[in-house]
From TrEMBL:
Belongs to the multicopper oxidase family. This is L-ascorbate oxidase-like protein. One of its GO terms (molecular function) is oxidoreductase activity. InterPro entries: Cu-oxidase-like_N, Cu-oxidase_2nd, Cu-oxidase_C, Cu-oxidase_fam, Cupredoxin.
Length: 538
């Protein structure tokens, strides 16, 4: 299937969708999505998948900075369901985050209308189910935020725009995977890699023209390397940050991450391989698509280009080359570099160590010795209604404790406008990736071994990029800085979905005791109530 899209057409499409502008208010876009099961032969085997409006992957959301999205989601599955908007900051609005700590799941044969704004953001993002192991069956899709026409971008408008959702894939049913994890088993090795839910796809362009590729790793557990045969890739944007425009032969994209590149079709007219393959795995799984020159009469030929021969060290060095474009704006007119994050003294340092303990004889995953369990009442509702006993702000320490692992509904308390340093310490031999809802953060340092205060000397305090998901290499650490300017209850989680499901997550409560609409929006009038919140009135 040929999939292309010209940037200036987006705005015409949005107009057709009923965009309104009243009293200079930002436009509203209305959607209705129905979530159902369907059958698809993905890797040559018929299997149950999750469809949105009959589509796998789900519909692509193309919106413009500051658009308001009103999306009615109808759940026709046999299990409760939630959708989360990966990387959307939900300014002052964790009520719409779509995770179990903020929202009651939508019951079968019921619906919920999400209402949120793409406030002050540009870039390539995704959405996916946050409940159970639904993500293993699909339900994911692209969410692209195009810049406002009055805000310049640091490159010429591309001649076309392609979205590529890449990720590992399992033949097993999502309920089978869930039951296996519940029994104490670890996640099996994936069966394949997909590009846009397929094993074959074609992307067509004209020789001499430049095209944007939006690449997101929507898989469950595996880092991927992305490359295009015979073509250089110019990195221009990473999760909302405009970056220094370096050229790359291949790029590592870890679970939950998104990147945007420009590719000029400057080679002889023929077809070329587009490749996504697993990284850091003994068995390498590969998916290929085709970059087709419109004037080509020659099919793809030659060997599929190989991934880099070097592993973690090479990947870490590549990560260090991602730098903020200080003179460019992002969604707002002020330059990105006008915020001098490196001159701010953090109010606290938090060190988070992941682990894989046995608790009650079963495999769990933990943060600082605490493995998270979901309560029947969302934390956000418990907080709002002052329901005691739902979560604890004392169970999770700000430093690794070394104590025996425990189960808890763990929340870490912080104050609005704190500026914190967070170190992700990975003492395991496996690749890790971490995501923070409601925010982006400066990724200031990567290093091997144990983090210590003297490692701050290696931090990039000048032009580190901001993003919402960062990788942590085996037996290594990653340091980030976060400006806590968005009040709410925010999920901090492993993006490796088996680890998230079995407890490698917690919530960050960013709080100001004075209730004010300047800090946070009111509880939605259509809020779903469950658990101990049933019968209470907003």
């Amino acid at each position: 299937m040929v999939k292309s899209f010209i940037p200036h057409l987006v705005f015409g499409v949005l107009a057709v969708l009923g965009v309104s502008l009243v009293n200079a208010e930002d436009p509203y876009l209305y959607f209705t999505w129905t979530v159902t099961y369907g059958t698809r032969s993905i890797l040559g085997v018929p299997q149950q998948v999750i469809l949105i409006n009959g589509q796998f992957p789900g519909p692509k959301l193309d919106v413009v900075t500051n658009n308001n999205i009103i999306l009615n989601l109808i759940n026709k599955l046999d299990q409760p369901f939630l959708m989360t908007w990966n990387g959307i900051k939900q300014r002052k609005n964790s009520w719409q985050d779509g995770v179990l700590g903020t929202n009651c799941p939508i019951p079968p044969n019921s619906n919920y209308t999400y209402k949120f704004q793409a406030k002050d953001q540009i870039g390539s993002y995704t959405y996916f189910p946050s409940t159970l192991m639904h993500r293993a069956a699909g339900g994911f899709g692209a969410l692209n935020i195009i810049h406002r026409s009055v805000i310049p971008i640091p490159y010429a408008n591309p001649d076309g725009d392609f979205t590529l959702l890449v990720g590992d894939w399992f033949k097993a049913n999502h309920k089978t995977l869930q039951q296996s994890l519940d029994s104490g088993k670890s996640m099996p090795f994936p069966d394949g890699v997909l590009i846009n839910g397929q094993t074959q796809a074609t992307f067509t362009g004209d020789q001499g023209k430049t095209y944007m590729f939006r690449i997101s790793n929507v898989g469950l557990s595996t880092s991927l390397n992305f490359r295009i045969q015979g073509h250089k890739m110019k990195l221009v944007e990473v999760e909302g940050s405009h970056v220094i425009q370096n050229l790359y032969d291949s790029l590592d994209v870890h679970v939950g991450q998104s990147i945007t590149i420009l590719v000029t079709l400057d080679q002889p007219p023929k077809d070329y391989y587009i490749v996504a393959s697993t990284r850091f795995t003994k068995t390498v799984l590969t998916a290929t698509a085709v970059l087709h020159y419109a004037n080509s009469n020659a099919p793809v030929s030659g060997l599929v280009p190989a991934a880099p021969a070097n592993g973690f060290d090479w990947s870490m060095e590549q990560a260090r080359t991602y730098r903020w474009n200080l003179t460019s704006n992002a969604a707002r007119p002020n330059p990105q570099g006008s915020f001098h994050y490196g001159t701010i003294t953090p109010t606290k340092t938090i060190v988070l160590a992941n682990s894989a303990p046995l608790i009650n004889g079963k495999l769990r995953y933990a943060v600082n010795g605490v493995s998270y369990i979901n309560p029947d009442t969302p934390l956000k509702l418990a907080d709002y209604f002052n329901i005691p006993g739902v979560f604890s702000t004392n169970s999770l320490s700000e430093l690794p404790s070394g104590r025996a692992a425990t189960l808890a509904t763990s929340v870490m308390a912080t104050s609005l406008h704190d500026f914190i340093e967070v170190v992700f310490q990975n003492n395991e031999n496996t690749m890790q990736a971490w995501h923070l809802d409601g925010y982006d953060f400066w990724v200031v340092g990567f290093g091997s071994g144990q983090w210590a205060p003297d490692k701050r000397k290696s931090y990039n305090l000048v032009d580190a990029l901001t993003r919402h998901t960062t990788q942590v290499y085996p037996n290594s650490w990653t340091a980030i800085l976060v400006s806590l300017d968005n009040q709410g209850m925010w999920n901090v989680r492993s993006t490796l979905w088996d680890r998230q499901y079995l407890g490698q997550q917690f919530y960050l409560r960013v709080w100001n005791p004075v209730r004010s609409l300047a800090n946070e929006y009111d509880i939605p009038s259509n809020v779903l109530l469950c658990g101990q919140a049933v019968g209470r009135h907003p």
